[in-house]
Amino acid sequence: MAAAFVASGDIVDEMDELDPYKAPSVLATRAADHPLIIYGVKECGDPEAIEYLAAELNTPLLDVLKLARILLPRLRDHEMTTVASSLGIEGVDIHLPERRPRHTGHLFSGLLDIIYTLNLDSLRSLARLSHGATSDFESLFVEAESYRIRNAFINTPKYDRSASWCIPSINVTGAGVIGDDDWLEDEDAPLDFQQLDTDEITSMFDPGGLFERTMDRYEH
Q: Contact at 8 Å (CB) between 17 and 26?
């Protein structure tokens, strides 16, 4: 089993060929409060063991393969090498089993940066589709939506360190992948987020909007 634990775009721990049923006692202190990142839960050969490990560590389980299929639907396939190439991540040793955990963490960070470049409509749609699903992606999309709104009127993005595993590894301003790539209203605008219009501000408080979904997370 190849998996990684990440925080703030950095890999804080990784494991390869570790028995998932013995891992909780080994990793409990080293990987506490960090999500378990794996490339293909069903494809790993023992999904029940992976889910057991995440449950024992009380940490989110994030499938990078699923996330890549959501964010990069136009790729010819979603093998690690293909996804890495599309993200501009070099790794000639990506095929080596002992390097797979680290590359899994790097791919997750690259996909996380993409999430933070998507427009608000895309983020809201992804959050709604993820609500109630078996994955833990909803937190990613809600945090990204909240991030975009919080930083719409300031030049320097501010990160919420309490959700450090959800934040991008860089101050992202690149183009999003999902949709018609029309996320930027003015391509000559300075490298800060565009201001929200009144409809976007109002939609925050609509049923199912950002405010309601954020409160639901705290209540549960």
A: no
Residues of the chain with pLDDT under 50: 12, 159-163, 165, 170-196, 218
What are the boundaries of each domain within the chain? 2-115, 120-219
Q: At what angle do helices 120-130 and 137-150 cross, to 10 degrees?
A: 150
Please list, in sequence order, all residues whose beta carbon lies within 8 angstroms of the beta carbon of residue 15, skipping any fewer than 6 positions away. 1, 2, 3, 4, 23, 27, 101
Nearest to 179 by CA among 114, 84, 133, 106: 114
User: Model-level pTM greater than 0.70?
Assistant: no
The DSSP bridge partners found for residue 25 are none
